[in-house]
Specification:
Rossmann fold; 7 strands; globular
Amino acid sequence: MSTVKLPATFPNFIGIGASKCGTSSLYAYLQQHPEVFLSVPKETQYFTYDEVFELGPEGLVANYFGGAEGYSAIGDITPTYFIASQVAIPRILESYGDRTPKFILIFRDPVERAWSHYLHKLRAGGETESFVHAMALEEKRMAREPLGWWGYVMEGRYALNMRPWLEAFPREYFLFLLTEDLAADPIRVLRDIYQFLGVDPDYVVPDLERQNTAGVAKSEQVLKLINSPSLLKSLVKQVLPLRYRQSLKTRIIEFNTNHRAPIPELSPELRIQLADYYRPDIEEFEAMTGLDLRRWKNVPSSE
C-alpha cells in the first residue's frame, strides 16, 4: 500500500457508528477534551457522499477542521460509515494509504436501536408508514436508496455489518463501546476512549448532558417544508455547501422536536419477535468483539 501525503489536520480517528447509539452524546463529550478536535458540524460524510469526497483531503480540512492545528486527536464522527462499508472502506484505504486511522464504534440493544431509528425518521418527516409496514419495505427502500437511512432492522445486524471492517483493517485499531455503559458510567467510558486515542485519560468532562434525545414533532407543516421539494430548497442547495445544509436541517428538526412529549412504545410482541431475529447475530457479535452482551439477550423468546 502506498504512502499518501495528507494535511496535518486530516482526521486520525473516525467514529464510524452505529447510528442511534449515542454518537451525538459521544461527539459532545469528546469535543470538550482539550486535546481532541472534532469536525464542525458532526458527520462530515466525507467517505460516503460524492459531493464531500470530491473536495479532497485539503478541501475536507478547510471546510470541516479549521483550527485543528496542534491537537493530538482529530476526529470525524459519521455513523453512516458503518453500514456504507462498500463505499466508505475503499475510500478510507485510498485516502490513508499505508496508514490506518483508529476507529471508534458504539452499539446499543439492536431492538431499541431499530425502534429509535424509526421514531427519529418519523419525527424528521422522512417516514409515514407504520413500523411493521416500514420493516416490510426496508429491503426495497435500501436497494433504491442505499444512503437513504432506511435500515431500521438491518443496521442492527452488527456482526454482519462489522465483518467487512475487520477484514479490511487490523482488530487493534478498533474500540468497541456500549451505549448502556456510556449512559451508566460516562466517565469510565470516556477514560477508555482517551487511552485509546492517546490523550490525557484523567480529564473530566464538565458537561455530561445527553444529546439528541427522543421526542415527537411539534408541527407537521415544518416537516413538510423541510422534506418536500421546493424552489427555495433548490436555491439553497445551489448556494450553500453541504455542511451548512446539514447543520441548518439539524437545527430546524431540533427546534421542531418536543422532548417532553410521551414517546411511543414498541409493542411487547414486536419486541420479542425482533429479539428472536437478532439473537444469532448478537451471539456472533459478542464472540467477534469480546463485549458482554447478556443484557441484550435477556429477552423472552417467542418459541
